[in-house]
Amino acid sequence: MSKKSIAKNYIYNMVYQVLILILPLITTPYLSRVLGAEGIGIYSYTYAIVTYFILFGSLGVALYGQREIAYAQDNPEKRKKVFIEIVLFRVITIVIATFFYFFLFVRGKEYQLYYQILILELVAAIFDISWFFQGLEEFKKTVTRNVLVRICSVSLVFLLVKTKEDLAKFTLIYSLADLIGNMSLWLYLPKYLSGVKIKNINIKQHLPHIVLLFIPQIANQIYKILDTTMIGWLIENKSETGYYEQGQKVIRLLLTIVNSLGIVMIPRMANAFANNDKKQIKSYMKMSFKFTFFLSFPIMFGIISISKAFVPIFFGPGYDKVNYIIYISCPMILLMGIENVIGTQYLLPTKRQKEYTKSVTIGVIVNFILNYILISLYQAIGAAIATVLSQIVVDAFQYSNIREEIKLKELTKSASKYFISSIIMFAVCFIVKFLISLEGIQNIIYNLSINIKMNKEYLFNIILIVSQIFVGVITYISALIILKDDYVFTFLEKIKNKFLRKKEA
């Protein structure tokens, strides 16, 4: 099987990951106003609960399956055998998880209706076979499968969710979207599995390997949703959960742009490891670190620049607290980008689960302790502080395990151009905000708002955001050109060559 382009697979996977986040995010301004912070908080809390059962039911199947399919890319018989065994294994474990979920939550009193609807998420997990196509580096399949389904779900939200009492409809729409989206991917299977005979199906052989990967994965996933759960547990006012969830939506969307390379690199790293190609593994790691710095620094400083104007436009009135959560949480874009490179792209594909598990377990413990202290004191803002501090601990521990492979001096040197360029960009964005705030510009905006019948403050925020993004991007790229960054020059060279080829044609 021919190797797919890393760049193309990154784009496909980023589009897929952003699609999952961006379409629900399109509805966020509407839902923030219709359902309110409390409604969003109830959904976030109940969804976090069902996520735990999906995690325990799925074990480490997704990552394990992707890795095993990557190992068997060129062996159709082994590939089909592995696929069937893993699917059967997952059906059994999800059914067991659903049984416990039903008796522990569905039969309860508080939020019972929402827990009942969310059973569909467990069913959807059974049909999720995206790991199969990711192992084959067929990322285009996982992008195209959900486009229509997701667009339909967004349309249904706008059509059917009208009041706070429609929270159940909202939950049902998104759960059905996940189920239908996962089932649609099965339509592609015949191309890869038909005509291949297999025998001696053995599900048990995968159990020890799946459990080894399950431990770090479950620790990592619990670490990611622990904040939402603990806010709902410690704070009676579910609006705090809503504020935190809205802030994290923005961070997760931006983080997706940075971390999408991780899923793409897993099969590459696994393949290089299988061939004992240490030089190639190190090359991949350096490339991933550089790419992470290239994106995370400007995104991090960029969201700080526009957050104050963005939050009231996007979420509406009453969400001022989200602004502070974004400020505090934005370092996660860089910190989780680094963890993605070390943990997801390197430690797990090269079978160093032990080191990864230790790092995430320490992160969970630190996060739990800090959450318990800080949420009680500062509510949602305390959860944001706890998350950043615990992520620093995770990154530090993970790096201590690879310091011989990648020196800190190399990372600092690799990051320096992007950090300097981002600081310059941030300063220019601040100047842009100062200029637009001048009395003369304010008068122009005021007159324009009257002519187009728009709230002056909204118009000011829109103009400010667009101006800062436009000027910020130009400033960042210009600074990197001055600093002679390889990425920018390679990109410009490709554009130049493409233009010349068109001109010759």
Structural overview:
The protein is built from 21 helices and no strands. It is mainly alpha-helical and 505 residues long. The protein has two domains: 401 residues, no CATH class; 86 residues, no CATH class. Helix 4 runs antiparallel to helix 6. The longest helix has 38 residues. The protein is globular.
Number of distinct helices: 21
Structural class: mainly alpha
Query: How do the SSEs run, as a string of H and E?
Result: HHHHHHHHHHHHHHHHHHHHH
Q: Compute the number of strand runs.
A: 0
Keywords:
single chain, mainly alpha
List the helices and strands and how they pair.
Layout: H1 6-34, H2 36-58, H3 61-71, H4 76-106, H5 112-117, H6 119-126, H7 130-135, H8 139-160, H9 167-184, H10 190-193, H11 207-234, H12 239-274, H13 278-315, H14 320-329, H15 331-347, H16 353-378, H17 380-400, H18 408-436, H19 439-451, H20 456-482, H21 486-504
Helix pairs in contact: 1-8, 1-12, 2-4, 2-6, 2-11, 2-12, 3-4, 3-12, 4-6, 6-9, 8-9, 11-12, 11-16, 11-17, 12-13, 12-14, 12-15, 12-17, 13-14, 13-15, 13-18, 13-20, 14-17, 15-17, 16-17, 18-20
How would you summarize this macromolecular structure in one to three sentences?
By secondary structure, the protein is mainly α. The chain has helices spanning 6-34, 36-58, 61-71, 76-106, 112-117, 119-126, 130-135, 139-160, 167-184, 190-193, 207-234, 239-274, 278-315, 320-329, 331-347, 353-378, 380-400, 408-436, 439-451, 456-482, 486-504.
